């Protein structure tokens, strides 16, 4: 009987404040969609770091006739200097840190450049003579690239030793900034949702002030009076949470897996399993946010 009465009060409150309930649903939906997107974006960044950092190479660039940095003096590296670098790579000092390496001469560098920039006007401006010869090195542990740089940077004929991870760091810094921005927007939207839920509950209580007065006179406890209002907020927020969870799953399924993974097959992306792991988080955050906001709002109202 008490449960039926509570549920009846919940249904009555939702019908009386339908427009405010819709507002709560929409704000919760938008805010939690940002939360889910931010979580998946951070997961994607971590996954890409693991994927690309393990594949990042160290390039040992040799001097050309146009180089004037490092040990270069506008003189191309000689075969003897190239052989000296190879000897260092095979030495007992560096060999334990190296998984594999290969030499790229000017013709191979030119061919790779043309493939990479096919259709770009810059491709017609480059000739093999302008390309740089290099050793491309895969390390057993990519984080130990500084060992290679310290050992080879000062050798004659070496222009520079470049760790590709330095380029990746710039990209991941931008992605991290985007993730933090999404988290900030999500936090603001959650605050807005909490305030809107509290306002909705207070308006609902005000519209039923006569009924509440009667319930107090007949001895109803504050917890019994508060419960329907808390459930109202939770129901509205859960609807928004379910919509947000559906949106996050749809984004991963149709955009990330359906488009990005097909367009960039060489990159690892988050999948449906990752999206499904976020769903309970969104439902839990939505329900907890609504319960706390509604409970605080109705408690303060009943004390007035």
From TrEMBL:
The lineage of its organism: Bacteria, Bacillati, Actinomycetota, Actinomycetes, Micrococcales. It comes from Microcella alkalica. Gene3D superfamilies: 3.30.70.3040. Keywords: Cell cycle, Cell division, Cell membrane, Membrane, Transmembrane, Transmembrane helix. Part of the ABC transporter FtsEX involved in cellular division. Residues 185-300 form the ABC3 transporter permease C-terminal domain. Forms a membrane-associated complex with FtsE. The keyword Protein biosynthesis does not apply. Residues 57-161 form the FtsX extracellular domain. Pfam families: FtsX (PF02687), FtsX_ECD (PF18075). It is found in: Cell membrane. It is a multi-pass membrane protein. Belongs to the ABC-4 integral membrane protein family. FtsX subfamily. The chain crosses the membrane at residues 21-41, 180-203, 224-255, 275-298. GO terms for cellular component: plasma membrane. GO terms for biological process: cell division. InterPro entries: ABC3_permease_C (IPR003838), FtsX (IPR004513), FtsX_actino (IPR047929), FtsX_ECD (IPR040690). This is Cell division protein FtsX. Its main location: membrane. It comes from the Bacteria.
């Amino acid at each position: 009987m008490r449960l039926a009465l509570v549920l009846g009060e919940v249904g009555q409150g939702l019908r009386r404040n339908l427009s405010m309930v819709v507002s709560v649903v929409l704000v919760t939906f938008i805010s939690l969609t940002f939360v889910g997107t931010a979580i998946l974006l951070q997961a994607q960044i971590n996954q890409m770091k693991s994927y690309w950092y393990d594949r990042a190479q160290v390039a040992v660039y040799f001097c050309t006739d146009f180089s004037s940095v490092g040990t270069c003096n506008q003189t191309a590296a000689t075969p003897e200097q190239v052989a000296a670098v190879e000897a260092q790579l095979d030495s007992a000092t560096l060999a334990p840190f190296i998984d594999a390496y290969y030499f790229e001469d000017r013709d191979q560098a030119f061919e790779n450049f043309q493939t990479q920039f096919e259709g770009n006007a810059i491709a017609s401006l480059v000739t093999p003579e302008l390309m740089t010869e290099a050793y491309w090195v895969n390390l057993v542990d990519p984080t130990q690239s500084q060992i290679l740089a310290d050992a080879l940077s000062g050798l004659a004929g070496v222009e520079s030793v470049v760790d590709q991870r330095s380029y990746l760091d710039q990209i991941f810094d931008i992605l991290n900034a985007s993730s933090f921005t999404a988290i900030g927007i999500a936090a603001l939207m959650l605050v807005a949702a909490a305030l809107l839920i509290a306002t909705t509950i207070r308006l609902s209580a005000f519209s039923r002030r006569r009924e509440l007065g009667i319930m107090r006179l007949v001895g109803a406890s504050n917890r019994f009076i508060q419960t329907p209002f808390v459930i109202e907020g939770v129901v509205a927020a859960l609807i928004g949470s379910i919509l947000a969870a559906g949106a996050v799953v749809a984004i991963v399924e149709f955009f990330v897996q359906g488009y990005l993974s097909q367009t960039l097959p060489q990159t690892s992306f988050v999948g449906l399993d990752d999206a499904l792991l976020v769903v309970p988080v969104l439902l839990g955050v939505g329900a907890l946010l609504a319960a706390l906001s509604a409970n605080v709002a109705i408690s303060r109202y009943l004390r007035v």
